[in-house]
Design brief:
This protein has helices at residues 2-25, 28-51, 57-76, 81-102, 107-126, 136-159, 163-187, 192-218. It has 220 residues and is mainly α. It has one domain (2-218). The longest helix is centred in the last third of the chain and has 27 residues, at 192-218. The two termini are 13 Å apart.
């Protein structure tokens, strides 16, 4: 267990290094390396869960699939925003399925997710800095998915505030914020700061979700 714990933080250092290099140089290879690092880490933690004979393997499996789709979104969004958004949305859905496996859907999930959805859509569509054009439907659908995922992760803490649930919620909220930064960068006349913040928040968020698999496995 100690070796896996140390490995997690070694990969965090690798991820941060590649994220900084990508933000400075904008070289696509660094982005791929950062994405690869959190996927490899998620696999390592998943193998640890298997060897530890964790009773939460279905949860770990869904989270691992979501993390792999997140990497796919990283790679594909550079060539096509629509494709990248679709792949990211699949990743969010698997995160959502993960949280539903932890605890079944309840009324609070819909209330919290609905509040988040109303808040973010009002910001995106009532603020005059945005111009979505034909992409408006894509943005709305994506908001439904990511708000559902984020809301569910937060409600899970309310019912069971264990470390893994807190990690999943933190990673989800950070993912949500990074997506807001991405939208600001793509559809509003903002500075390069939003571009840097997007990746600087997103990659650590994926590490937190991958680390959540380890936390889930080591807690019997």
């Amino acid at each position: 267990m100690k070796k896996v714990f140390i490995t997690n933080f070694i990969f965090l250092a690798i991820l941060i290094f590649n994220t900084v290099c990508f933000n400075i140089t904008n070289i696509f290879a660094f982005k791929c390396l950062a994405s690869t690092s959190f996927v490899i880490l998620a696999i390592i933690n998943y193998v640890f869960a298997v060897k530890a004979k964790s009773s939460k393997m279905k949860i770990a499996t869904l989270m691992l699939i979501g993390i792999i789709f997140a990497m796919g979104g990283d790679v594909s969004i550079n060539s096509s925003f629509e494709l990248g958004a679709a792949v990211f949305a699949l990743g969010h859905l698997f995160y959502f399925f993960t949280y539903c496996k932890i605890r079944k859907l309840c009324l609070k999930d819909f209330i919290v997710s609905g509040i988040i959805f109303v808040g973010i859509t009002c910001f995106l569509f009532l603020t005059p800095i945005f111009d979505f054009g034909e992409m408006a439907i894509v943005v709305v659908v994506y908001c439904v998915i990511i708000c559902g995922m984020t809301g569910k992760s937060l409600v899970n803490i309310f019912y069971d505030p264990i470390v893994s649930n807190k990690l999943f919620a933190l990673g989800s909220v950070m993912f949500f914020i990074s997506d807001v930064m991405l939208v600001l960068n793509l559809f509003a006349d903002t500075t390069r700061l939003t571009y840097i913040l997007c990746h600087s928040i997103y990659f650590p968020a994926q590490w937190i979700l991958a680390y959540g698999i380890f936390s889930l496995a080591k807690n019997k």
